[in-house]
Amino acid sequence: MTNDPEVLDLPEGLGAPRQISQSIYALLRRHIEKRTFPDGLVLGEAAIAKALDIGRGPARTALEQLAADWLVLRFGGRGLIVSYTGRPVAPVRKDLYEAGLELSQSDRDAFGLSGASDRIYPQVEATISSCVAFGRFAIDRLAMAEHHHISPTLAHVILTRLETVGLVRQDKLRWYADKLTPDQISEYYEIRQLMEPEALKRAYPLLDRNRVIAARDRLKAVMARGDVSPAELNQVERDIHIDIVHACPNVQMVRIIKDSQRSLITTMHTFERYGSTPKMVLAFEEHLAVLEAIVAGDPDGAADALRQHLIRAQASTVPRMIDLPPLDKDRYPPYLLPVESA
């Protein structure tokens, strides 16, 4: 009787070991046939298991199949070696992601990584977004994994998703979050001024009037009290810019709006860090005008009020993003490493 705990130790949501080994085989074969991996790359079951968060058993089976198909060669060391000439070549030992491994959405689904990344992604996105107004940062993938108590593979999946939305980028196998400049914030606001009012009008027939009334009453209570917590400020922003605007049935319009609202995430977190919320409170009357118009059945008036609010927000926010004070080291996570401007 054999004891193979690696085969049983599969992430939740994965299929049978045979299915997993076939997915590994297809993934590696694709990279080899496209010559993505460097010539001489050593493929070992431990490295594959670590890269994909799976047990060694399926990795071992996939490697045996690659060898049987003459896609890799056996050599004196541990593992198998990629050789595009079919002849012996000097071994290259690298992290598979550093060697060019990329996971498609179907790959992430096959290895059970999509659901886990969905749980962690919002926190990482908010963390990085809250720092980029202060400068450019390198991102240490392994430190990020340790900080969030996730695997390096899952950290890579999350960074890839962030790259898709433009928050981070990969350069020479390193990850970076570039500084969000005042000019970029202005451009995002211009997009929002054009699209959010139109999205509001399209969302109007779908809105729950009682929820809009609740948002209005919540805002009135905050205004009457005269002070606001960061959590309340965040909710005030969500009530209109997320809950109402994102209810627009045009999926592509909402996608563009979400991308342009990244500046909102950044500036909100930035101002929270320095307790600089009083000027934000001045926008409450403008928010109230939008909500009152919706409650009154005037979507055109609500759209006009929203447009004027965004114009004023651009005029007041952009100057505040210029020459921000340095971000104290204890205010950003250890996996973000400040990079001096060239």
TrEMBL record:
rRNA-binding as UniProt keyword: no
Annotated InterPro entries: GntR_C, TF_FadR/GntR_C, Tscrpt_reg_HTH_GntR, WH-like_DNA-bd_sf, WH_DNA-bd_sf
Molecular-function GO term, any one: DNA-binding transcription factor activity
Keywords of the record: DNA-binding, Transcription, Transcription regulation
Pfam families for the chain: FCD (PF07729), GntR (PF00392)
Coiled coil start-end: none
Domain of life: Bacteria
Residue ranges of every copy of the HTH gntR-type domain listed in the record: 18-85
Cited PANTHER family: TRANSCRIPTIONAL REGULATOR, GNTR FAMILY, UXU OPERON TRANSCRIPTIONAL REGULATOR
Protein's name according to its UniProt entry: GntR family transcriptional regulator
Organism: Paradevosia shaoguanensis
